[in-house]
From TrEMBL:
Hydrolase in keyword set: no
Catalytic residue positions: 263
Primary location recorded for the protein, binned into one broad class: cytoplasm
Keywords: Cytoplasm, NADP, Oxidoreductase
A Pfam family the protein falls into: Aldedh
Aldehyde dehydrogenase domain mapped to chain residues: 23-482
Stored InterPro entries: Ald_DH/histidinol_DH, Ald_DH_C, Ald_DH_CS_CYS, Ald_DH_CS_GLU, Ald_DH_N, Aldehyde_DH_dom, ALDH-related_metabolic_enz
Gene Ontology MF terms in the entry: glyceraldehyde-3-phosphate dehydrogenase (NADP+) (non-phosphorylating) activity; lactaldehyde dehydrogenase (NAD+) activity
UniProt-recorded name of the protein: NADP-dependent glyceraldehyde-3-phosphate dehydrogenase
Catalytic activity: D-glyceraldehyde 3-phosphate + NADP(+) + H2O = (2R)-3-phosphoglycerate + NADPH + 2 H(+)
Localization (cell): Cytoplasm
EC number(s) per entry: 1.2.1.9
Similarity comment: family membership: Belongs to the aldehyde dehydrogenase family.
Length: 495
């Protein structure tokens, strides 16, 4: 494994960027450090690429895409299957990076890599099916038209896709963009997140080693303040697939006519009805709210409990939270440090606001640098920031409501509408709530979740643009092209 990854590092120890089939050092002579959230030590360095190097990467991608688009579908699928094999064979170093860069528990880090390889394999197979289908239209299906025109409808690539994944799933959410883009015949420029960048470079090394033509896949690194806007507004970009937070809204305002696929976070509400299985609900709330320290867009971000069952539900959730371990990602603790000091400070601000406004703390507030013990808040009210803002950390507020309609109204009043869930034994209630909740997905009797990765995944309002999921991403990464064959009207007769 060490030999497999050896060429991606410079003699200085800094990781290189990848352009036109080559691992390179930046002409800037500068690097960007990556801080370990657990130790606060600078464990890695990556290249601080210049705007000219961004230009070079896009030029390479644009040139390579023309021939890549002509590569047969079966051949593209063959390349992707090779990438999946290489990811499984070289998974552990990638997982080790996730532990150090984003404090992801070791077992979850390895799971992310293997899940990503599975996603690539599935994308290759789904691409063969969905992209291989076309359509034939005849003109005489429209009133008054003779049958002298044949319209052949096909799917063609967009061109160059800029892929920007988030820190919390820098491997999985990178390949969820790269694999459909490549299978559809596009070239790719990957800009990994600042935290998770080295895991992303290791992942990209598997694409490079699979033998894809030079320029088809590229990775650029550097400070967002220096190359961020330059990347997202670059004239060579034909599509942007972005997962993250408020930055995505800024990108959408600047992107112009470029197609966008965006997932921008959520304030996922969990509605617990009076007839719910409370043991089931509590277990899903604890797992959904605190897995990876709540740093997931699909985490349970607010519990809306009916008044008559709230005491019992909260007691069960409290018991579950008390069992969570707090500590190091290397030890597979349930709660590990959040990704940065800025994130920890933001979370603390939400918690202090709730305390000042009268929320009941069922757990003690404890913070050591970036490590925050799980926080369970009861009797949260709508005037508290935590009722509306996404903490992206191990904080779970409970609002007590008098009716299902009140709960749905709270959910729909948020500017975020990614996912939600409802716990009830009544299928009629479940469907009524699902119809009423203005979110991209509603889970019935389970916590929100993105996967399986072939399921459609989308958000309403500020939670996103477009839909993900393997088949939807393949469709989004292509455009429709029509070829009309005009036949001789007089000679084209039947019988």
């Amino acid at each position: 494994m060490a030999e497999f990854y050896a060429h991606i590092k410079a003699s200085s120890g800094a990781y290189k960027y990848f352009c036109n089939g080559q691992w390179l050092e930046s002409s800037s002579g500068k690097t960007v450090p990556v801080t370990n959230p657990s130790t606060l030590q600078k464990d890695y360095q990556v290249q601080a690429c210049t705007q000219e190097e961004v230009n070079n990467v896009f030029a390479a991608a644009k040139a390579a895409q023309l021939s890549w688009a002509k590569t047969p579908l079966w051949k593209r699928a063959e390349y992707l299957h090779k990438v999946a094999v290489l990811m499984r064979q070289n998974a552990q170093p990638m997982a080790d990076c996730l532990v150090k860069e984003i404090a992801k528990p070791a077992k979850d880090a390895l799971t992310e890599v293997i899940r990503s390889a599975d996603l690539i394999d599935y994308t290759a197979e789904e691409g063969l099916r969905s992209l291989g289908e076309g359509q034939l239209l005849t003109s005489d299906s429209f009133p008054g038209q003779p049958r002298n025109k044949l319209c052949l409808v096909s799917k063609v690539p967009l061109g160059v896709v800029l892929c920007i994944p988030p820190f919390n799933y820098p491997v999985n959410l990178a390949v969820s963009k790269l694999a459909p883009s490549l299978m559809a015949g596009n070239a790719v420029v990957l800009k990994p997140p600042s935290q998770g960048v080295v895991a992303g470079i290791h992942m990209l090394a598997c694409f490079a080693a699979a033998g894809l033509p030079a320029g088809v896949v590229n990775v650029i690194t550097g400070k967002g303040s220096e190359i961020g806007d330059f990347l997202t507004t670059h004239p060579a970009v034909n599509c942007i697939s972005f997962t993250g937070g408020d930055t995505g809204i800024s990108i959408s305002h600047k992107a112009g006519m470029v197609p966008l696929q965006m997932e921008l976070g959520g304030k996922d509400a969990c509605i617990v009805c009076s007839d719910a299985d409370l043991d089931l609900a509590a277990s899903h709330i604890v797992k959904g709210g605190f897995s990876y320290s709540g740093q997931r867009c699909t985490a349970v971000k607010v519990v809306l409990a009916m008044q008559d069952i709230a005491d019992e539900l909260v007691a069960k959730v409290h018991a579950g939270v008390a069992k969570l371990s707090v500590g190091r990602p290397e030890d597979n603790a349930d709660i590990t440090p959040v990704v940065s000091e800025a994130s920890a400070n933001f979370i603390q601000g939400l918690v202090e606001d709730a305390r000042e406004k009268g929320a009941q703390f069922l757990t003690e507030w404890r913070r050591e640098n970036n490590l925050i013990a799980p926080v369970l808040l009861d009797h949260v009210t709508p005037d508290m920031r935590i009722a509306w803002e996404e903490p992206f950390g191990p904080v779970l507020p409970v609002l007590r409501v008098g009716s299902i309609d009140e709960a749905v109204h709270h959910c729909n009043s948020s500017n975020l509408g990614l996912q939600g869930c409802v716990f009830t034994r009544d299928i009629n209630t479940a469907m009524r709530v699902s119809d009423a909740m203005q979110t991209g997905t509603v889970q019935v009797n389970a916590a929100p979740a993105r996967g399986p990765d072939h399921f459609p995944f989308q958000g309403f309002r500020d939670s996103g643009i477009g839909s993900q999921g393997i088949k939807n991403s393949l469709a989004m990464m292509t455009k429709i092209k029509s070829t009309v064959i005009n036949l001789d009207k007089e000679s084209y007769t039947l019988g």
